[in-house]
Amino acid sequence: MTTDAKTDSLVTAIERRLTDISEQQHALAVEKARLLDQLTPLRLGILAPDTAVAQLKAKGVKLRPLPPAPSADQRPRPAPLKAVASIRPTTLPLALAGPQSPGKTKAAL
Length: 109
What we know:
By secondary structure, the protein is an all-alpha fold. It has helices spanning about 5-45, 50-60.
């Protein structure tokens, strides 16, 4: 197989994959628009929640079950704290006078 043939087959495979992705994105956009149309009356408060749920179920929309609400008896537990090593390097005090004797400066010598 020549380099041109390999390049052409690669480009064809990439174009096919991009076409598939584009079709999936379009299908998802259509589904999103349909779901937003169904949820808008509920968001605006035009419909009662029970009525909206009944209409969605009648249209064949499957709703995910909600997780159970936390009970009032249970207090939230704080996250456990872990000891972490300090990221700051330890510093040593610098000698102000250096190797000279205290009280004398270079000018005095």
